[in-house]
């Protein structure tokens, strides 16, 4: 098995561990001092910060299901595109949603992992926060003027 295929399989395992909430099994796949390029300043770097962010997300998005849509490997990087659905109950800074929680569906999430010697050393990730804000009612789209877009 080539490095690209091996890296892809490692990332697939890591993504499944995140999905299953088996955070204690992740350590073996991350290099010491791994760096994430998507963390806000108040969240620590490395796997400890990723676990903290994940725990916050599982509290804010209850009953979360995630589906991997695409996974590609090239050189030392692996790209993952997935979607998640859940019940948003609040708690994400900047998303001031109405009380009571609302469902979110098919929210896009993209990740890029860089691996070295079979371990993750860097990560870049993005979630579609705009779609989340729209679906939970924290952001309203302006009404289209009559005749617009025709």
List segments where confidence is low: pLDDT < 50 over at least 5 consecutive residues. none
Give the H and E element order.
HEHEEEEH
CATH architecture: Roll
| Biggest sheet features | 5 strands, mixed
Number of domains: 1
Helix tally equals 3
Strand order of the largest sheet: 1-5-4-3-2
CATH fold group: Nuclear Transport Factor 2, Chain: A
Mean pLDDT across every amino acid position? 87
* Backbone structural class: alpha+beta
- Radius of gyration, rounded? 17 Å
Strand content: 35-45%
Helix coverage percent: 25-40%
Give the total of beta strands.
Answer: 5
Provide the CATH top-level class: Alpha Beta
Distance between the ends: 53 Å
Shape: globular
Question: What do you see in this structure?
Answer:
There is one protein chain. The protein is α+β, with helices and mostly antiparallel strands and 150 residues long. The chain has one domain (3-136): Roll (Nuclear Transport Factor 2, Chain: A), CATH 3.10.450. Helices cover 27% and strands 38% of the residues. A five-stranded mixed β-sheet has the order 1-5-4-3-2. A hairpin with a 2-residue loop joins strand 4 and strand 5 (119-127). The longest helix is centred in the N-terminal third of the chain and has 18 residues, at 3-20. The protein is globular. It starts with a helix and ends in a 14-residue tail after the last helix. The mean pLDDT is 87.
């Amino acid at each position: 098995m080539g490095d690209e295929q091996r890296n892809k399989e490692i990332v697939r395992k890591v993504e499944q561990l995140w999905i299953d909430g088996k955070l204690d099994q992740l350590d073996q796949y991350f290099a010491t001092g791994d760096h994430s390029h998507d963390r806000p300043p108040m969240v620590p770097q490395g796997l400890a910060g990723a676990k903290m962010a994940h725990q916050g997300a599982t509290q804010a998005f209850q009953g979360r299901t995630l589906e991997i849509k695409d996974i590609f490997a090239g050189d030392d990087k692996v790209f993952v595109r997935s979607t998640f659905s859940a019940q948003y109950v609040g708690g994400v800074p900047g998303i001031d949603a109405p009380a009571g929680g609302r469902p979110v569906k098919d929210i896009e999430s993209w990740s890029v992992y860089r691996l070295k010697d079979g371990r993750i050393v860097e990560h870049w990730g993005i979630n579609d926060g705009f779609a989340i804000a729209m679906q939970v009612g924290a952001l309203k789209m302006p009404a289209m003027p009559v005749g617009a877009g025709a």
